[in-house]
Amino acid sequence: MGLNLTQKIIKSHLAFGDMVTGTEIAIKIDQTLTQDATGTMAYLQFEAMGIPKVKTELSVSYVDHNTLQSDFRNADDHIFLQTVAAKYGIHFSRPGNGICHQVHLERFGKPGKTLLGSDSHTPTNGGIGMLSIGAGGLDVAVAMAGQPFYLPMPKVVRVELKNRLQPWVSAKDIILHLLSLLSVKGGVNKIIEYGGEGVSTLSVPERATITNMGAELGATTSIFPSDEITRLFLKAQGRENDFVALCADQDATYDEILEIDLAKLEPLAACPHSPDNIQPVNNLNLKVDQVAIGSCTNSSYTDMKRVAEILKGKTIHPNVSLVISCGSRQVLEMLARDGALAELISAGARILESACGPCIGMGQAPKSGAVSLRTFNRNFEGRSGTKDALVYLVSPETAAASALTGKITDPRTLGLYIPVSLPKKYLLDDRLILSPFKTPTEVEVVRGPNIKPVPLGEPLLDQLRLPVVIKVGDNITTDHIMPAGAKILPLRSNIPAISEYVFNSIDPDFASRAKEVKQSLIVGGSNYGQGSSREHAALAPMYLGVKVVMAKSFARIHKANLINFGILPLEFLNPSDYDSLCLNDCLVFNNLKQSLQQGEVSLINERTGDEIKLKVNLSKRQLNIVTKGGLLAYTKAVSFSQNPRCL
Ligand code: MIC
Ligand code: SF4
To answer: End-to-end alpha-carbon separation of the chain, Å?
Structure first.
């Protein structure tokens, strides 16, 4: 029987298990990437493993999230990252060189290879047929140490693309449409594999927009075949040698098949405060205060060039603030050299450096109650830096049209379509990517005072009496659990300091309450921990004494992060038990270790006397890790070199 593309890549990288849906497998990782906001922790953890040099084919450390440098802390993190990279065989992409996913796509991604990144949008490189997965920093550190990456064998969903997009409808509208069909949890433990005649109508940057935002489906990753379009892109990036053709076999089978008729799509918007809250742009009637174009979803050269063409010779609406951040230095420099940047500036755009910027709340917070149109991928409440702002996610075309009119505008009203051709040759200049040192012993790793050691978890006890320290609803994001933004992001290397902000936006007293009770439990709804890969959303609660999270269901990366930091994730056997629980209820677990082995745990609620049953959805390996107090503690117990497969 033929294989689909996902199965082909997994098969060629399989290090453990069988490709049976839902069972645990491990795959060899060829490349890793980190970004600064998750990277400092990942490298501290890597250092703790005592391995002299990364064992991957390629590892790259990017600085793109936290580039405001409002005090010494960011800059200290940057020099730490630069020196660690030089010492351990890692390439270092300097601040200003661009957003990790965009730069990786341009300069490093390879069809058929595997990539593990400490950022949830790592699947961007699925746009060139690479199996690219987001994970917590510790999982990436372990991969850099040469260990395989463990995951449940995902279901494979084929999305069959028919026909081609109409003028002014864009790749962003395809993924927004898919979000409207599947929702933010529709992709959990699934890989979305694109196929069909519509594939050849999409360029690599368009494919990358789609795979990037597949993260919002909760999917493990998304992938496109590697074809002639991929070859031409790699050739234009001076990397034709990295090309291999890859596609699913004719008789491949899938767990699910979905069809999208590209010709029937129209410009769409994700309305506040969730990427799956989709409406046609035409149905919306809104005055717009801010337009932000950029982020790892929509900041390629072609995206930006089209925006420049739309704005050419015009002026943005007086009530709109337009802010533009290019995905990479390559994009920015090309726009500067061909005059498009001048058109953007002349139309009234405010130009930022090539970095994540407003996407992660690093500056450009909109005004109170503002309507902000963004080409980004997440519109969670407060993520923009303004709690009551209303963020709509749209395509660059819709964003540019709306910047001109001051209200949300269907780009099809712009008239004749402006085609933008893909460059035959991109501007190639890798001088901001530093190679590792040839003589690592000469490198001294520089650590600023804000860089604190990674706390270790504690082994799980057999008897626990845990108060419910917070009860939250469905689709809680890691932005709720561990917010980012200009004030909190600089604390990413300092867990004691950042833990003060856990759940800050929904319950500012959370941290002090958790510290007071010393050991506690969180109650969550379904899809708990969706969104980012930040392991701080597990590490900081662990530091505050959280031992168990009980939820209706979990997002994949966050669940893995909880396990890695020794917090036990348990799922309600009967989801209606969720309703019976209140804040401060004391829950008693007896014989925990034995019941964990049996796959079902029960607890008694002291207030009501009720028994609640919970599912243990963990592999043997995960159980071992969580009972030892997390992957680092486990790694110390089971020597890395003696028994690497046990990790
Ligand atoms: C995000 O988009 O939320 C981030 C910032 O890129 C995160 C990583 C982080 O929190 O550092 C992600 O998506 O993984
Ligand atoms: Fe950066 Fe935003 Fe992309 Fe996250 S989603 S990597 S913050 S641009």
So the answer is: 33
- Give nearest CA residue, ligand 1 atom 4: 532
400 and 302 housed in the same domain: yes
Q: Does 25 share its domain with 153? A: yes
Check whether residue 533 and residue 620 sit in a common domain.
yes
Count CB atoms within 10 A of the CB of residue 263. 12
Residue 637 has a pLDDT of 63
CATH code for the domain of 23: 3.30.499.10
Q: Does some domain include residue 426?
A: no
The answer to whether 119 is a known catalytic residue is yes
What beta strand segments (E) does 435-577 contain?
464-471, 520-523, 546-551, 568-572
Q: Could you tell me the CA-to-CA distances from 586 to 388, 470, 522, 540, 582 in Å, in that order?
A: 34, 12, 11, 22, 9
- pLDDT per residue as tens digits for the range 545-596: 999 999 999 999 999 999 999 999 999 999 999 999 999 999 999 999 999 9
Q: Let me know if residue 431 belongs to a domain.
A: no
Task: Identify whether 452 is part of a domain.
Answer: no
Side-by-side strand order, sheet with 31-35: 131-134, 114-117, 31-35, 58-62, 91-93, 433-434
The burial of 394, by beta-carbon neighbours within 10 Å (0-12 exposed, 13-18 middle, 19 or more buried), is given as: buried
pLDDT of residue 638: 56
Element at 195 (helix H, strand E): strand 190-195
Question: Is there a contact between 125 and 40 (Cβ–Cβ < 8 Å)?
Answer: no
Range of the domain at 531: 464-646
Task: Tell me, using a 6 A CB cutoff, whether residue 360 lines ligand 1.
Answer: yes
In this structure, the answer to whether residues 160 and 205 fall within a common structural domain is yes
Check whether residue 392 and residue 488 sit in a common domain: no
Angle made by CA atoms 560, 566, 571, in degrees to the nearest 5: 60
The enclosing domain of 515 has a CATH number of 3.20.19.10
Please say whether the beta carbons of 81 and 92 come within 8 A: yes
Q: Are 450 and 490 in contact (CB under 8 A)?
A: yes
- Arithmetic mean of pLDDT over the chain: 96
Q: Residue 636's pLDDT is what?
A: 65
Q: What is the pLDDT of residue 501?
A: 98
- The per-residue pLDDT for 308 is 98
User: Which residues contact ligand 2 via a Cβ below 6 A?
Assistant: 65, 99, 119, 121, 295-296, 356, 359-360, 376-377
CA 472 to chain centre: 22
Cα–Cα distances in Å, from 156 out to 10, 22, 204, 467, 618? Answer: 12, 11, 21, 40, 21
- Evaluate whether residue 556 is within a structural domain: yes
Q: Residues 287, 337: one domain?
A: yes
Annotate 208-226 with DSSP letters as a single string.
HHHHHHGGGGTBSEEE--B
Please report which ligand is nearest the Cα atom of 124. 2
Residue ranges of the chain with per-residue pLDDT less than 50: 639-647
Regarding whether 581 and 542 lie in a shared domain, the answer is yes
- pTM, two decimal places: 0.97
Q: Do both 260 and 272 map to the same domain?
A: no
Q: Which helix (H) or strand (E) holds 178?
A: helix 171-182
User: Ligand 1: does its nearest atom lie under 6 Å from the Cβ of 121?
Assistant: yes
Total domains, the chain: 3
